[in-house]
Amino acid sequence: MAQERKPKSYGLVVRSIMGRYPLNCILSWEEDRVEKTLRDVASSLPNQNFRFITWSVTTGMIEDGAVISDVIDPLAVLDAIIQIQDPAFFLLKDFHPYLKERHDVVRKLRDVYFAFRNKPRFVFLLSPILVLPVEMKKEIEVIDFELPSFDELLGLFESIVRAFEKRGGTVALDEASYRSFILALQGLTISEATHALTKLLSGKKILEPSMADVLHEEKRQITLKEGILEYVPHVVSMDDIGGLDVIKDWLVRRSDALGEEAAAYGLAAPKGVLVMGVTGCGKSLCVKAIANLWNLPLFRLDMNNLYAGMAGVPEEVFQRALKIMDSVAPAILWIDEIESGISDKTGEGAASRILGYFLTWMQEHSSKVFVAATANRIDLLPAEVLRRGRFDQIFFIDLPIPEEREQIFRVHLRRATQIEAMSKFHLSQLSKATKAWSGAEIEQAVLSAMFDAFSERRPVAVDDLYRSISRTVPLATTMAEQIKKLRSWAHDRAVRASSAPAMPE
């Protein structure tokens, strides 16, 4: 289906060779894929017959499948490499620990640099992490080996599908379905994608479009291993949200905006949305519903946990989280309570560096990561975060008006399996009884009524709801001053998430 194109990583290696860099550090987990790429580059270079030699501490030096030296000491292997006068590529695996621990190895690598300079001999240090001694920063080229491209994953998928068909399986996919599978695989290594597809097809007789959703679980595994981001399953739909018609319409109109068709139309991928509002009025529900509506994986980054230091230095953890998101794209990044970590704290060390990194990433990242941020105190955010170009839109979710409260009651009462007839509840009266209540407070009132009814093993009755309502003091009463200040701030600075104007009741 796809015309084969060389991945970006191939071009980076070629440019390094053309630039005559004797020492190269390749950042990747994928040894097989890196080795294949280097072999392809070596065989494509004109007027040279390059030898290809690999080394690891467990195998020694290997060429064409045979051990040419069983040397395992890193200093000794560098001595051996210097003695080879033929054009060659040398791939040294997991060499980074020696760059931390042994100064003599660092010195010998610099000797290799000077010995190989302007000669057709190239050393590649393969490692999943960057370890770069200060002595070598001017003499080594760093190649960040990207994850498999769309075309590479498509080639892998097609080969696995062909094998599936040979075993008697049926493939019920059109071209759009093929694309959905590849998008679900993006962010995985070739090995991870192979395992995921093999597991998906195990015991199956037919490959259907709906099976692509299962592949998102593999992206959850990536975040579980890192311990920074929380994968949020698709459990909330737009139908679970009462009111908020403006933000719903905005999201529906952009439901295909991260796809190939939108790009071909000339649309830039949407960057994100910032949802602010009164606590308990549906900010988090909106974010969860985006993932369901757009059928994309959702990952939550809690800024309070970030600063707790459990996963490491805050700014390093934040950078790592954004890099993970780039790798699992297309996806949605939910930054919960963004003002807790990206606030107007000029000069406060980690907070200032995180702000700078976030602004740069939001402006320049090309991955299809949609940022959905929520905030309770948006006035704490610096102006740089709020300006156009960072987020596509800023929405304000106010306390629900009477009609919206009726919708919210209906949503939560639908979930109760044992209730009196819905007609007995008179939602308009319940709405009047919960004046200035948030959606979360209405949900808790329904839940409390269900507990009361369940304790007596009977259906939920209207009286249960009114009894629950009478026991609650809403946030709008206890925090009236803060809510008034928030409304005042948002009046001319954000778009109301509901088309209904806020009116006194």
Strand content: 5-15%
Alpha-carbon Rg, integer? 29 Å
**How many domains in all?**
4
- Quantity of strands, as a count: 16
Class from secondary-structure proportions: alpha/beta
What does the main sheet amount to?
A: 7 strands, mixed
- Report strand order across the widest sheet: 4-3-2-5-6-1-7
Class of the largest domain in CATH? Answer: Alpha Beta
CATH architecture of the largest domain: 3-Layer(aba) Sandwich
Contiguous runs where pLDDT drops below 50 for at least 5 residues? none
Report the oligomer: single chain
Q: Determine the CATH topology of the largest domain.
A: Rossmann fold
By CATH, the superfamily of the largest domain comes out as P-loop containing nucleotide triphosphate hydrolases
User: What is the global morphology?
Assistant: elongated
